[in-house]
Amino acid sequence: MKLNYAGTSLDVSSKGNTFVLTFDEQSIQVELIHSKNGRLDLLIDGKRVTAYVSSDNARRWVTVQGQTLTLTKSSGRRGRGHGQYHTAGELTAPMPGQVRAVNVGEGDAVSKGQTLMLLEAMKMEIRIQSTQDGVVKKLFVSQGQTVEREQILIEIVDSLEG
Fold first, then answer.
1. What is the mean pLDDT of residues 85-106?
2. What number does CATH give the domain 2-75?
3. Residues 25, 56, 131, CA angle at the centre, nearest 5°?
4. Given this model, what pLDDT does residue 139 score?
5. Domain 84-157 has CATH 3.40.30.10
6. How many CB atoms neighbour CB 29 within 10 A?
7. What is the pLDDT of residues 55-77, one digit of tens each?
8. What is the dihedral of CA 139, 142, 147, 152, to 10 degrees?
9. Can you tell me the distance from the alpha carbon of 157 to that of 44, in angstroms, rounded to the nearest whole number?
10. What is the rounded average pLDDT of the residues 112-127?
């Protein structure tokens, strides 16, 4: 995903709960420790940092240590429908809500189209379905947990990678 801040391009790539932010030919590795209700507990260069995030479609406001940055998406497509994805196999919440059911566990084999979990948002039931055949590598949420829009819910890998 590419983001812009004050005219500077910021590339964001992720694998599970680890993100690499690249800008001005520098890269920073950020590990997501905990996420709830727009609050992110992060590990950046060995230091624990708390960030607060809010968004409206293409813009995100990130507040860290009293400074707020406004980020906008500049390119890249995301899957739509039953759970969006960041990279192949990473399913995210399409909107804020609460996890009502988790139908799989880590290590379980899944089929493309299989309902993996149910979210409730604005009195609607949202089915998060697998985008591929594979194996559940990591569950990032549990039943009853509140999630934010685009929060990573589950990671699926090809059964040969698992």
1. 80
2. 3.30.700.30
3. 75
4. 93
5. no
6. 11
7. 765 667 777 877 777 776 654 44
8. 0
9. 26
10. 88
Confidence class of residue 39 from pLDDT cuts 50, 70 and 90? confident
Residue with tokens 């604005």: 122
Residue ranges per domain, the chain? 2-75, 84-157
pTM of the model: 0.49
pLDDT value of position 83: 41
Q: What average pLDDT does range 120-140 have in this prediction?
A: 88
Q: Tell me which DSSP letter residue 96 carries.
A: S
CA angle 150, 156, 157 (to 5 degrees): 135
Q: Are 72 and 59 spatial neighbours (Cβ–Cβ below 8 Å)?
A: yes
DSSP for 50-88, please give it: EEEEEEETTEEEEEETTEEEEEEEEE-----SSSEESST
Contacts (Cβ under 8 Å, ≥6 apart) of 161: 134, 135, 137
Is residue 147 within 8 Å of 153, Cβ to Cβ?
Answer: yes
